[in-house]
Write a structure and sequence with these properties.
By secondary structure, this protein is α/β, with parallel strands linked by helices. The chain is 40% helix and 21% strand. The chain is globular, with a radius of gyration of 19 Å.
Length: 243
């Protein structure tokens, strides 16, 4: 029988606070002592060790279900090939893997920790026969060299661009078109604001005009879809297609 006496509960609360304090100090050092993307990768790995479901933002069931409901509504078909950019531990990926035809799903992430958690989830949820590809982006860039001659119908980046600096976004938009055909779409969430601002250690916002500029420079057509994607934490949604 569990001891829930006030003394025991108080001790547990104190230990939790101390543990959280040491974890936050460790995270602060990561961002202070390393290149941003390296720090973000290591931070995500640490969070994955603690809990893979909260390592990528939590709200596991709500946001995961919202992702597939939205993209199916946008025309995602079972026969399509999908790239889940920043797939994490498969909060949304598990739904896409189950929905798409076998070999239709590819997920990549810079964190090997969440990729390994995703592979375990594929086994646990009986999705091995769907043959998803889960790839750790060990290069830590957005040149997509692991896909030299592949085209995806849908590319999706949930809570990815929200964690990227301006130069990373520019690199992503400069190279993502190589993975797209005439009918392909690249959907992404972002935090919007009047100016480009770093909101915290790993969160960034940009004005919509920034994405309009990148779309023009890379021959994309940009469409905002935020009204049909009510993200619980205020992220906006847009997609680009090739002109």
């Amino acid at each position: 029988m569990t001891d829930r006496s006030p003394k025991k509960m108080k001790k547990k609360t104190l230990l939790d606070r101390v543990s959280k304090w040491f974890f936050n100090r460790r995270v602060d050092r990561l961002y202070a002592e390393n290149d941003y993307l390296d720090a973000y990768r290591m931070h995500t790995d640490l969070r994955a060790e603690r809990d893979p479901k909260t390592a990528i933002g939590g709200m596991w069931d709500e946001v995961g279900r919202m992702q597939i409901d939205f993209l199916v509504g946008e025309g995602l078909e079972r026969s399509h090939r999908m790239l889940d950019l920043g797939c994490g531990s498969l909060r949304g990926g598990r739904h896409f893997i189950r929905y798409l035809d076998p070999k239709g799903y590819t997920g990549i992430d810079i964190s090997e920790g969440v990729i390994e958690a995703g592979k375990r989830l594929v086994v646990d949820e009986g999705l091995i026969d769907q043959a998803p590809r889960l790839i750790a982006n060990t290069a830590g860039d957005f040149r997509f060299a692991m896909f030299p001659d592949e085209i995806f119908d849908f590319i999706f980046a949930q809570s990815v661009l929200t964690h990227l600096q301006e130069d990373h976004l520019e690199e992503c938009f400069s190279n993502i078109g190589r993975l797209m055909g005439p009918e392909s779409r690249f959907y992404f969430t972002f935090y919007s604001g009047e100016a480009s601002v770093r909101r915290g250690p790993k969160s960034f916002q940009f004005p919509f005009s920034f994405f309009e500029k990148m779309a023009r420079e890379n021959a994309f057509e940009l469409i905002e879809r935020s009204e049909d994607y009510p993200h619980p934490r205020g992220q906006r949604m847009a997609y680009v297609t090739k002109r």
